[in-house]
Design goal:
The protein is α/β, with parallel strands linked by helices. The chain contains ten helices and ten strands. The protein has two domains: 268 residues, LigB-like (Protocatechuate 4,5-dioxygenase, Chain B), CATH 3.40.830; 30 residues, no CATH class. The chain is 31% helix and 20% strand. A hairpin with a 2-residue loop joins strand 9 and strand 10. The radius of gyration is 19 Å and the shape is globular. The protein binds 3,4-dihydroxybenzoic acid and fe (iii) ion.
Length: 319
């Protein structure tokens, strides 16, 4: 079975690529953001995932407003980047894991997610920037990827609940996969930002922190926001948080927050980085010697509690 080691949420602002190309990681503007990845580097070096499932939104490199799938998944053995017009260097390609992609596609379609299946797919800054942040300076990326694209651009968008469920379907498929691989799940974009219109430059720290607090311990709470309510609070592009919701949904075990960094601003965006660890449910998996498979050391109860969004305590008035 594939082992889901955890999830990473990260901003994907393109100018990060410029900062990397120009070696500005330690400049005063950039340092508080890049330092937030020191923990991530140590964690990835320890955990050594084989594959990254990456939830992100395409920004017009594959799909434009004329044709925009709600959910699309790559089923290729290689994904290339192309010049996106941000003035950042074109990234090296990422290797894909087409076998795993097809396994996920079967589970997802079986669960009622009618995915657009892409045997050719370009990856844009929403994939390449997070990879450059997570694995800096590598000649080839040390993981294969399965990219999953969520429409955060052309309304109507999928709901937060739907994206959480999409992630859950991916998590179940990973748990059922017969190859012994380690998987990290990544959600990119956000947090609050708006790039255009009257509210260009909008950032909402209080709401971002609420989203980060709830994502780890109780993501079901966040499904109470409609897309419109979410955009009011997070900005038109802050809704890229849908990718973080899907990432969280794919964590099928006991989830705990291992790390977060929050920094305002990077370009027009509240930049956030988060690591959620995923501990397997079974006694064997977390080294319990009590011999019980369920509820040993209280781990199972913790998991069940975190899996029942209907039983969540009310948040009170929507903030
Ligand atoms: C910026 C943020 C994004 O999410 C993006 O896709 C492009 C640009 C920005 O803040 O500059
Ligand atoms: Fe974006």
């Amino acid at each position: 079975m594939a082992r889901i080691i955890g999830g990473i949420g990260t901003t994907h602002v393109p100018s990060i690529g410029q900062a990397i190309a120009e070696g500005k990681e330690n400049d005063p503007y950039w340092s508080p953001f890049f330092r937030g990845f020191d923990y991530v580097h140590g964690w990835l070096a320890r955990e050594k995932p084989d594959v990254a499932v990456v939830f992100s939104n395409d920004h017009g490199l594959n799909f434009f407003l004329d044709k925009l799938p709600t959910f699309a998944i790559g089923a290729a053995n290689e994904y290339r980047n192309e010049d996106e017009g941000w003035g950042i260097p074109v990234s090296k390609p990422a290797a894909g894991d087409a076998d795993l992609s097809w396994h996920l596609i079967n589970q997802l379609v079986g669960d009622g997610f009618d995915m657009t299946i892409c045997q050719e797919m370009l990856i844009d800054h929403a994939v390449t920037i997070p990879m450059a942040l997570m694995w800096p300076g590598e000649r080839v990326w040390p993981v294969k990827i399965v990219p999953i694209s969520i429409n955060t651009v052309q309304h109507p968008l999928p709901s937060l609940a739907r994206c959480l469920d999409l992630g859950r379907s991916v998590g179940r498929a990973l748990d059922a996969y017969d190859k012994d691989i380690k998987v990290v799940v990544i959600g990119t974009g956000g947090l609050s930002h708006q790039l255009d219109g009257e509210r260009a430059g909008f950032i909402n720290k209080e709401f971002d922190l609420l989203c980060m607090d709830e994502l780890g311990r109780n993501p079901g709470v966040l499904t109470r926001y409609s897309i419109t309510q979410f955009i009011e609070r997070a900005g038109a592009q802050g809704v890229e948080f849908l990718n973080w919701m899907a990432m969280r949904g794919a964590l099928t075990g006991a989830v705990s927050e291992a790390h977060r960094n929050y920094h305002i601003p990077i370009s027009n965006t509240a930049a956030a980085t988060m690591v959620l660890e995923n501990v397997l449910v079974t006694a064997k998996a977390h080294g319990c010697t009590s011999g019980k498979d369920v509820d040993c050391c209280g781990v199972k109860s913790k998991i069940e509690a975190s899996k029942k969004p209907e039983q969540i305590p009310a948040l009170g008035v929507l903030r």
